[in-house]
Amino acid sequence: MADSEPLPSLDGDPKAAEAWLRDVFEIIMDEAIHKGTRTSEKVCEWKEPEELKQLLSLELQTHGEAQKQILEHCRAVIHYSVKTGHPRFFNQLFSGLDPHALAGRIITESLNTSQYTYEIAPVFVLMEEEVLKKLRALVGWSSGDGVFCPGGSISNMYAMNLARYQRYPDCKQKGLRALPPLAIFASKECHYSVNKGAAFLGFGTDSVRVVESDERGKMIPGDLERQIKLAEAEGAVPFLVSATSGTTVLGAFDPLNIIADVCQRHGLWLHVDAAWGGSVLLSQTHRHLLDGIQRANSVAWNPHKLLGAGLQCSVLLLQDTSNLLKRCHGSQASYLFQQDKFYDVALDTGDKVVQCGRHVDCLKLWLLWKAQGGQGLERRIDRAFALAQYLVEEIKKRKGFELVIEPEFVNVCFWFVPPSLRGKQESPDYSQRLSQVAPVLKERMVKKGSMMIGYQPHGTRGNFFRMIVANPMLTRADIDFLLDELERLGQDL
Ligand SMILES: Cc1ncc(COP(=O)(O)O)c(C=O)c1O
Fold it and tell me: How many domains does the structure of the chain reveal?
């Protein structure tokens, strides 16, 4: 085809393209935003995979389809997707649909730029630094560095790589040959990304020493000290402790000050994985849970979780002011980071990271913060704590519900004990039968579309539900619904 002719479809007709996109936005407003956040609508529309493939007409063909047909695809994609903004989506550590954060995501996607140079992302380079500065200040640092990463797992991996580079700068060039066997310490409640990172970065999962945690899920500093000595006696070199502020299942906060003392005594890098609990720093009432975080070398924090900024929004914050990020990851690509540019090349932050192109993740948080202010965000955090406490009280009041532990955060872990198991705690197969309840109820709620809540076994405990109170739209009525619905779904068990 001659290139003097526009391509078929919407490519050559900007007006038609705009009109079509307006139709798409209307579908998004209607299906994802309006219906997706109404309790009168379902959280999910379960279909078996084969049926779903048919319903979505997934197969890609050689010919393009009519615009009306594409609109129908858009509608179907939303219809059959899980509505994570729904007030009864309790399944993950993120939930809710904040309009300002969503506006940030839509603008980001519409502009479709990369965060690496001031040249093509002037607004976002300045904005990223401003947001990072604010988050660092909440940690307690008046200076430092940081970067937005594609998720908390990657933020944790960056911390591991930086800690290694700081101690053994040769490893950037010489790789693992430059290193003695290294030891990383994290509690058994830590996020699995610590293990994944150890494998990915070449430490090997054997180099992760698992530190005991207490019955509430907090790292036991005495055991950390013991493990450090053990690793040394075995010829390994301890270099990093990864503490957790807000563990994934129990929502526990490790005692950071005591852990920081241990790190100081042994000269170890302290990383705090606050992917989940970092947002608590915004609450004057609850921020004591992270006391000592200012003593960390690095902090991972996911505003896409409790702050509801939207996926993905995760930061790695550093106390370092020696340009460690850039020294560790920089590669000085001359086609991108030209040193003779007409502006201050320090604004080209792309060489701080291992990626080349980098998604803009700061705008959604910046807009959310602009709209809510620190005070509004604090109110959200405090309200989530209060609603979690309400749930705890209701669980204690109701027959057939049993708390796993008294929570200190917004993870509320509990068993639903169905009628046939009540009063049977002494029978030998009680735990095994109780463990089968959550998967059955999960299937029922998903197929009905009434709500979604996660469950898991944990240590020696059989499956229990983990309720996450994160959606700022939640009210007591939704909490009551959760308990009532579990009773309804499990009354015949
Ligand atoms: C404590 C903790 N750290 C890290 C992560 C990983 O974050 P992401 O899912 O953004 O990789 C999670 C995820 O749930 C988490 O709970």
Answer: 3
